[in-house]
Amino acid sequence: MAVFGAAKFERFFEAAAGLDVDRRDVRRFQDFAHRKVYDLLLIGQISAGANGHDLVLVQDLPITRGLQENIRFFHRMGHEIELKPVLAQLSEYPPLTRGLAGETRDRLPAVAGGLGVALARTFTAIDQRVTNPRNCDWERAARLFDLLL
What are the tens digits of pLDDT across the range 68-120? Predict the structure, then answer.
């Protein structure tokens, strides 16, 4: 299920970091975004429990200062990610032990968008010469996110 159409996805990565991505990269991004959103929700449910919340609230999500800045940049870009595909993909993962508050659920597309901005910028942070990320670039960036999130 697509969170972006291919053309919108291409414009998104161009605006975020000047990258030239193509339709083949859409699936890589979708997999990355869904994995990382789920990781944030897993930690969020642990925080919710520690904070005595029955539901995962926005403040339970481990949103770092850097990710928050990327979410703000995503909003300024004027792009939107569809909520339904994000939630549909998350349903393929093991269920969370706590439900999501409505505000948290509504915020997930922006979180996914912020992760996308951070990912695009990571490609150029790793190698300033990258303009069209290759398989090895995607794998390297994903490994960095796995270490940090």
Answer: 999 999 989 887 776 567 666 766 778 899 999 999 998 998 898 999 999 99
Q: pTM for this structure?
A: 0.90
Residue 99, phi then psi, degrees to nearest 5: -75, 170
The number of beta carbons lying within 10 Å of the beta carbon of residue 148 is 12
Query: 109 and 82 in contact (C-beta within 8 Å)?
Result: yes
Tell me the two tokens of residue 105. 């659920």
Rg (CA), the chain: 15
pLDDT confidence band for 127 (50 / 70 / 90): very high
Q: Does residue 138 contact residue 26 with C-beta atoms inside 8 Å?
A: no
3-state secondary structure of 56: strand
- Within-domain flag for 1: no
Domain containing residue 23: CATH number: 1.10.20.10
The alpha carbon of 66 is separated from its chain's Cα centroid by a whole number of angstroms, namely 13
Would the CA dihedral through 126, 127, 132, 137 be positive or negative?
negative
Expressed as residue numbers, the domain containing 113 is: 6-148
Evaluate whether 80 touches 8 at the Cβ level (below 8 Å): no
Query: Helix (H, G, I), strand (E, B), or coil: what is residue 100?
Result: strand
